[in-house]
Amino acid sequence: MLNIMGKKKKLREVANYREELFKNPQLRQLFLELTLRCNEKCLHCGSSCGDVKSEELSPEQYKAFLTQIKEDFGTQDKMLCITGGEPLLRSDFFDIMSSANELGFNWGMTSNATLIDDSVAKELYNCGMKTISVSIDGLEDTHDAFRRTPGGYKKAMNGIESLIKLGKFKHVQVTTVVTHKNIGQLDELFSIFNEMDLDSWRVINIDPIGRAKQYPDLLLTNEDYVKMFEFIRTKRMMGEPVTYGCSHYLGMEYEREVRDWYFLCTAGTYIASIMANGDITACLDIERRPEFIQGNILKDRFKDVWENKFKEFRRDLSDTCEKCKNCSEANFCHGDAFHTWDFDANTPQVCFKDILF
Amino acid sequence: MKKTKKTMLTAVTLLSAMNLVPANVLNAAGIEVEEDDSSVESEFVNEMSGVYGPPPIVGDLNYDRSVDAFDMQLMRKAIVNGGGKKYAHVYDLNDDNNTDMSDAVILQKYILGMINEYDDIITTSPIQTTVTTTTREILTTQPAYGPPVYTTGTEVTTIPAPLYGPPEYFSSLEAAKTTTEVDETTTTTTTTIYPSYGVYGPPPTYFGY
User: Fold this and answer.
1) Residues 6 or more apart from A145 whose CB is under 8 A from it?
2) Chain B contacts in chain A segment 64-123 (CB below 8 A)
3) Cα–Cα distance, A158 to A112 (Å, whole number)
4) Cα–Cα distance between A318 and A339 in angstroms, integer?
5) For residue B10, pLDDT beyond 70
6) Residue of A nearest to B46 (CA)
7) Which is more confident, A192 or B47?
8) Worst-scoring range by mean pLDDT, A1-10, B65-74, B80-89?
9) pLDDT category, B61, cuts 50, 70, 90?
10) Which of B3, B31, B51 is best to mutate for the A interface (most A CBs within 10 A)?
């Protein structure tokens, strides 16, 4: 384990920085949920996407919105994070993203890659895509069962190969959601990914949000969590580009060791999201309650919303939780990630105290 | 998957913190490090941390959550490439809307612990420590685990660790590396260890610093 004194010093700096961010938020990542429609029906989907009807904005509406963002915030150091549903299901996808590219925005996408082949990969590059993260949630049978899509694994792997083969993207990443059912496949998955020219492999745990709440048997046990973090750390010790995601405070044992940064949930301070219907919120993984909708881009100017609302997200969750108040790590954890907070019970749904630390 | 200098540095720091394998053993073991362009790497690190990571720290030019010599390397490249306004949004530490040597000097002072804030010069003196070593040669083939094996000589006698400094192992490697030319000669080396390093302490010399 790395130097604890050094870690605490850095975490105190992060805590101070967080306070600054509450006062002076800086928009850096703007998530655009282009659709709720998806050609897969994943058991863990945070947005309960699938074969659903989805309100969607037109390319003209997106162009007007992004022009406004450019006027108010500029495009430098801003990243558009394109997500869904499966964004490529939209027939006007390339119209929307070409506009974003022409306006000067950098953009990346999360996708299941089932609709990507050599020609789509080329088109993605031509309209400015820089980065992409593709979901692979287990070996072939597990992946297809988990995403309830026969043949999904093969299509996704072919899509990834097309992206890699083009060789023009700055980062091609695979993301794996680890569940109690697939945790035993991590080593085999590593063997497969290690043969591919991927830039990184993001390994994250399933969270009790969205559709995953209906499948508690998929959630990780305490032993599973330790196994997953040990797996990531071990790979990183061998110089492999394996990383955990941005969620959750991990305590002194694993903070900074399984990812390149210290925990800081930036929902509402760096991150804003536009839902498929134009509603404005902080992070798309946060429970979709009416009180978290800060406005709508068809009615409100985003800058006004960003500067005058979002108060709900710019506060310390642990301040109102008895369990957190008595926790020695509260100054570093702040109630953990916003998207796993239980707003009814006012307590974190995911807390690694007594599991990892 | 692609190994880069960044992932290898992560490996070395984790392994060294656990007193397992020094970097030269990783190299000897044939773990290949992909030749990469740091400026390109910096761009995608920027973008990926934009998607998945936390906010940047001033002076943390490669967005690895620490301000260190690797950031200095990027700063130098930016200046060599013409500097100016092109890099100013990230590299301009003195807010003069330009990237030039004055920014590099500020960053260097910060990395060395001579200033705590970019506009705040402090008077803390570096800590002087004396390290006595017996010189020896390092075997080219190192064991897979454990400390490096030497042909002759004894271990480093005193290596006080700085407050936030690196594990002692790093220092002992540094001391050992400075004395590989002459065999069976006892020398005294004065090492300057500056305070206020981050988690990992000063960067290891085998990356060019």
Assistant:
1) none
2) 76-77, 79, 81, 106, 108
3) 11
4) 14
5) yes
6) A77
7) A192
8) B80-89
9) confident
10) B51
Find where tokens 């959750």 sit: A248
The answer to whether residues A322 and A253 touch, using CB atoms and an 8 Å cutoff, is no
The closest of A331, A266, A329, A296 to A26, measured between CA atoms, is A266
CB contact under 8 A, A241 and B2: yes
Single-letter amino acid, residue A293: I
pLDDT for B115-160, tens place per residue? 776 654 333 333 333 334 444 444 445 555 555 554 444 443 333 3
Q: Is the preceding omega at residue A6 within 30 degrees of 0, hence cis?
A: no
Give A246's contacts in chain B (Cβ within 8 Å). Answer: 52-54
The 3-class secondary structure across B101-157, one letter per residue, is HHHHHHHHHHHCCCEEECCEECCCCCEEEEEEEECCCECCCCCCCCCCCECCCCCCC
Q: Is the separation of the CB atoms in B41 and B61 below 8 Å?
A: no
Contacts 24+ apart (CB under 8 A), A89-96: A89/A35, A89/A37, A89/A38, A89/A39, A89/A115, A90/A34, A90/A35, A90/A56, A92/A58, A92/A59, A93/A34, A94/A123, A94/A127, A95/A59, A96/A34, A96/A59, A96/A62, A96/A63
Average pLDDT, chain B: 56
Angle at A46 between CA A61 and CA A344, to 5 degrees: 105
Query: Chains A and B: how many Cβ contacts under 8 Å?
Result: 144
Neighbouring residues of A295: CB distance < 8 A, sequence distance ≥ 6: A279, A280, A302, A304, A305, A309
Confidence of residue B111 (pLDDT cuts 50, 70, 90): confident
* pLDDT band at B198; cut points 50, 70, 90: very low
What global pTM score does this model have? 0.69
Using an 8 Å Cβ cutoff, are A135 and A179 in contact? no
Distance CA A326, CA B136 (A): 54
d(CA A354, CA A346): 19
List of residues 6+ apart from A193 with CB closer than 8 A: A136, A174, A201, B1
Q: Does A197 touch chain B (CB under 8 A)?
A: yes
φ and ψ at residue B177, rounded to 5 degrees: -65, -30
Where is pLDDT greater, at A310 or A47?
Answer: A310
| Separation in Å, CA of A30 to nearest CA in chain B | 9
